[in-house]
């Protein structure tokens, strides 16, 4: 390997010694975490019983990350930078823990892990030990906003962190394995969405150590020329640091980092003080260093450093391993000269401790990475001001999303200085009919503009890129650093980020268990363009299953809302944007639809989350013959239409209408904090009467929530059954047997006491379904009685 | 806009006329599909009633795709190419339908859509009409293997199609919107995995029409220089075609395509006949043309062609739209001169019809795109030959995946000529302990190789890139073109492809409804490194919810298996690899674990899919006191350990052990083809006895499957509750209350008749749990009684 070198030395001999010693200390602590349960300072000869009986963890990436961290410390001090560190490669835990320990943050957060031999021993023992800490930069790690257990999101998180944080630099280490993922491959394009004046900067450090688990990596195995073109093609300016000889590498890294920081600050200066409005070509560092750098060269006769074999534990120590393994480990540990690094008590020697930045400049202590510390409440307008008048149920048509768009527009305009609220989406904000937001803001866009573009500006509150991964990653980064936001998406395609939601939900759950981590704003998904209204998109766009996915996560974290109309949507949106540390999923339609509740009634209904709509039912407070429940806008419409049919034809049937906004009300209160007690549930659904439940999503979800209720055997749920094509909303309900006619038939099938009257009505509804089929096949639209249907009280 | 031009003309005047006329015909048919319900040849003046009452669909991408298709037809004929067409941009339906109609394929597949005025009218009417065809290249479209409803997978599908198809060229149109997605952004790197000698070639055509729904696209708004660097950095050689003047564009496209095909064939020739083993720099076409090209320049005073306004319906025609809209539409339609293109009967004139390739060379007729036509059964070795000896239940430890790895190795080696089986995975084949496959094959890799690399070769049956999206997309493309395969992945991270699974399952469901589409091989997911064994990965790697996601899809498509041991896994794998047109999910562990069934018993058990393990129970065929059910390897182990405790301490309790391999046996036979009848279910689970069900995944899934069974109220399910960290498998079960001690306590809680004997045992088990906690916290491993536990018959 060759090393880029400069003729003029960048570091003095003393600086070189100090930065190398600091690096050695971090490497020593990393190896210690992997191996040692005793003798943490190697003050004794290494014995078998000093070594953990099970060695678990990952060495490969650690020395490279230690190298980067030490050099970032240097530039933080030299330039007085406000910087955080994102560890993209999986399993960089030993490195980030080592460094936050060395800089002192770790002991401040975890006082039991002291800066002495006892603390070191504890630090080593807890790593990858049952009940201890994991091998990633997990929520337990101070300074981390990115865990990296699942790979691919570091760069998106880094950009999310610096939006509207003009003083912040997010240093983002990207592993060359991670770089192969789709989300990371498109995240490089984030530079087209970052404003150099009003946002901070991301400094990516692409770490080419050449191997994944057991394969080489793509980016390490293309020519230098291809790699250079790729990064420049993505719009970055690369600075290369390549080699393996520590002193040369320190010099090269220091040079490259100084150049990169100068470059970065020049981009900011030009935008902030010279009126330069062009998109800068930001710097990126490419560090090529051996996997498992400074580790054993050979183990059991096979090359280790610089190969895939350095990925996890280079040398295994067990009762059956060759005795020379222990010697080899001892030599490896001593190669870092721990006696030079730690004093007699086990404390980092002062001249090395002085290498770290001070106070909140330490990357482990930066409050940005514990975003709840900085979180301010949104200035929230009164949502009832945006309510629409509903003189009588069903008397008004409105687009729910258009109405809430007005509310969002006001929130955006009321939270501009400092800006701490953004709307993210994959170019669907207009399609989702949130156009009102473009009355007060624009889409932030730093690539070229042309005549006839709309709502683009170099700074704006709406972030749109056709990548759900990017939208999610940006938003997560934005939230984790103490701001607020909303992701609006087509319902079906939100599954693209299922796994990212998983990781964020796990982060929230774990961070809630850490008293020093403050709560952050909730991750709010606003799903529209739903399964029932895919008139011109069809079957591929029909999937209401994200909520099934979400509710498997910890009950303390997840919330799901399906408001039946615009006023309810306003109330739900208000609630979600004020909430903390949840994942909220809101599902609502965008097409004009009948409105049911006044804004006051909506607020009351949404506060309860579930309730009887007495105005719609015919049970008059008495025990009903049947409960007709509904959840979601289209199911609510079909349920009310079904109730009208029953009211007209069988006025003596006592119907109770229950509407569900807060889906998790259906769970038992022992399973979810929002869940109803059995008594409350039974009071709504009865213990013995048939329940016909019209549900927005897959019907089995309601069964999964209610299987343990007294009335389970009477619960009959209609929902989406994976039947659909390009057709009308009403025909979609027919294809899935959720339409008014099927719902009435469901009721009739459960009320045999109606005798011939029921049978007669059932036959006439079956005829209606046939009529519908013929009519839509011929005319391509619904029968007038469907189109013109209106609720009559 | 500028147009690249060459001094020497490439097309003769007549060729230019013909290709332009063919393009006009396709454009005309595209506009016709969007607008017309009558007067399909415009033989009458256009009247309001000729226009569809609702105009749905997407114009923007169509003319560009028509242009590409016409030019591909030319090179197919000129070079006698075996080519298929993938329509990456969303909503290219009008274009691909138009072209397959023009070439005659459409009428062959759908005889009612004749090559005359009547057929044209039907063609137009069915588009985006309820019950008609959708606006994508859906399964209904002849020649399609890629629908494009959800964006991002076209290039991966294209590569999957050409692996082991050396004569095939997959022409892949990539929209510049789609190009922003993560999966597409990394799919460009597929060229590092394609062997030019043994695989076919992909010809990407990046179509820069500048806009998504309402935003510009990133790749259309960076400099030419950046775009060029990006594509070259990805390893491709771009050929540019830029402009809007049709004649110049035809010339430029013909030139570029001829050059690209020559380039591509030169790459193949070098690899196949000149011994060149280097990775070629394949050609890519970059076509920059206006969105909605040839459409109206302005509508309602606003520019349309070349802007985002051309995305869907440029001119709306309704009762309230301005009357000039109709005139404008008429002028637009007539601008293509339909009278020149179609004869008096409405048939494409012969000289234009002659422009299309013949027979199976037509891209709509290529049998590769109806893969079931070409599908051959795998040569399957007898799986029982790979069974391991199990002298007594629990007497042998083995890694299930290592055992099945031997079977997979034999399948790989038995299916090499022609090779039609591949294993895909994100660099986890070794980690998942399928190392036996590397005894017979390698990982296919065309990037640079170094000393110390392992199991890499320019041709091999294993495809590994650190992108689940790529693995899934490649495999789907491979299956859709008539081959077989397996995706092996960590269980938790398979959620990365949730949405891709959705789209594939929808494709399978729809294609089953089309008699002309033949069944293809099943999509097989092999999930290991499961939730229960994340000893050194921890919480981020724990998610068993993919099966929850899968079973929401159509019952006719999905199958889920959780074999309890290696012999069962062999039987299940054999079954899945022989199956057709399903999505099979197999979940199994990789760590050494007790083996329960002989290979014969395993075959019988897996054939049933669910059954009583009489050897484990104590009910002796009589009605039991309690049913202990288990599904998954770790739950089976804990259940049997719980049974041992009960057998030892309370030998009079009659226990029935039921093991579930085929999860969907739990559903009713009316809901799933594998489902048990109520009688069969009740015979296993009883109608009245407590059932303690130890489940591999989230416990609610079992409730969702069994809520409507007679014994629902006695069903008590233990599973993963989102509790976990770095710890032992046994401790993981304790954290989630699935361990043997909790299971016995669950039994005791339901058998009050045991009185003090039960209470005493319960207390001793609670003590055990405390002991466990202290032991593992101190020693980092399980108590000897756990480690040494063995089943005793």
Automatic annotation (TrEMBL), chains A, B:
It comes from the Bacteria. Keywords: Lyase, Thiamine pyrophosphate. The keyword Lyase applies. Residues 12-373 form the Xylulose 5-phosphate/Fructose 6-phosphate phosphoketolase N-terminal domain. Its cofactor is thiamine diphosphate. Residues 590-791 form the Xylulose 5-phosphate/Fructose 6-phosphate phosphoketolase C-terminal domain. The keyword Lyase applies. Its EC number is 4.1.2.-. Transmembrane segments: none annotated. Pfam families: XFP (PF03894), XFP_C (PF09363), XFP_N (PF09364). Gene3D superfamilies: 3.40.50.920, 3.40.50.970. Belongs to the XFP family. This is Probable phosphoketolase. It comes from Fibrella forsythiae.
